[in-house]
Design goal:
alpha+beta; two-stranded antiparallel sheet; 8 strands
C-alpha cells in the first residue's frame, strides 16, 4: 500500500487480497470497465483508492446475488446507483434475517427432540414421528389450557371472596353462588377439554380418543395420561396432543 497526499492507494494484488478475490478477477472487472483504477503510478501500475475497495466489495455482493456483469455495468452507469443497491441490501438483509429465524427454529426443534429422546425408554423410528408431531402440537395444547385458566379466574376470585366473607362476616350466600356456578363450569370445561384432546399410543403410535369416563378418572401428568389404546389395547401413559379434528 502506498500513500499519495495522505490518501491510501492499493495495488491490484492488495485490492484483491482486501476483497477476497483473485488478481485475475480484478483485472477482468477492469477489462470490462466496471472497476477502473483511480490512478496510475509513474511506472504504469494500477492504483486503487478506498472508494475502489468499497466498489469492488459491492460488485462481489451483486455477483453473489447472481446479477450479471452486464447488469452491474449498467447499474453503475445510473445517476444514483446507490438507491438500487440500498434496496438490494435491504432485501438481502431481510432474507438473511428470515433464514436466521428459520435456522434458530430448527435448532430449537433439534434441542427439544434430543430432550425428548433422553426421556424415551422404548426408542424407535416411529418415536421420532410422535415426538415431532407432539412438538408441533405443543403450542395448541398450551393455548387450550391457557383459555381454560383464563375462563376460570373470575370463578376463583369469587370462591376466595366467598370463603373470606363467610369466615369474617358469616356471609355464606356468596360461597353458595360460587358452588352453583362451579358445577356447570366444571362440566363445560371438562367437555371442552375432552373434545380438544387426543392421545398417542407409545406402542402402536396411533392417535386415539378414549372415552370421557376413562380420560376423566385416569392417572395423569401435565403431558401424559394413563389410558388403554383403542387400536392395540396397550395400557400405559400416552402422550397428550391437540385433536386436529376439532
Amino acid at each position: 500500500m502506498s500513500q499519495n497526499n495522505d490518501k491510501a492507494l492499493y495495488s491490484t494484488g492488495e485490492l484483491a487480497k482486501l476483497c477476497g478475490v483473485s488478481v485475475r478477477t480484478v483485472q477482468y472487472y477492469d477489462s470490462r470497465n466496471i472497476l477502473i483504477p483511480s490512478e496510475l503510478s509513474e511506472g504504469g501500475r494500477r492504483l486503487y483508492t478506498e472508494e475502489d475497495v468499497n466498489k469492488l466489495k459491492t460488485i462481489c455482493f451483486l455477483r453473489d446475488l447472481d446479477i450479471s456483469i452486464n447488469s452491474i455495468g449498467e447499474l453503475f452507469k445510473e445517476e444514483q446507483p446507490q438507491n438500487v443497491i440500498e434496496l438490494l441490501l435491504e432485501t438481502q438483509a431481510e432474507a438473511l434475517e428470515n433464514e436466521i429465524e428459520n435456522t434458530k427454529s430448527k435448532l430449537e426443534n433439534i434441542r427439544k427432540l434430543k430432550k425428548y429422546l433422553k426421556n424415551t425408554e422404548n426408542f424407535s423410528v416411529n418415536s421420532i414421528g410422535d415426538i415431532a408431531y407432539t412438538m408441533e402440537n405443543k403450542n395448541k395444547i398450551k393455548k387450550m389450557r391457557l383459555a381454560m385458566i383464563l375462563a376460570g379466574i373470575p370463578l376463583s376470585i369469587l370462591q376466595c371472596a366467598g370463603v373470606i366473607l363467610w369466615i369474617t362476616h358469616g356471609f355464606w350466600w356468596l360461597f353458595v353462588i360460587w358452588a352453583c356456578l362451579a358445577i356447570p363450569y366444571g362440566i363445560i370445561v371438562s367437555g371442552y377439554y375432552y373434545k380438544h384432546a387426543a392421545y398417542i399410543c407409545p406402542n402402536c403410535h396411533t392417535t386415539f380418543k378414549p372415552s370421557f369416563k376413562e380420560m376423566f378418572w385416569a392417572n395423569h401428568t401435565p403431558t401424559l395420561r394413563k389410558l388403554t389404546c383403542k387400536n392395540c389395547g396397550h395400557k400405559g401413559f400416552c402422550v397428550e396432543v391437540y385433536d386436529e379434528n376439532n
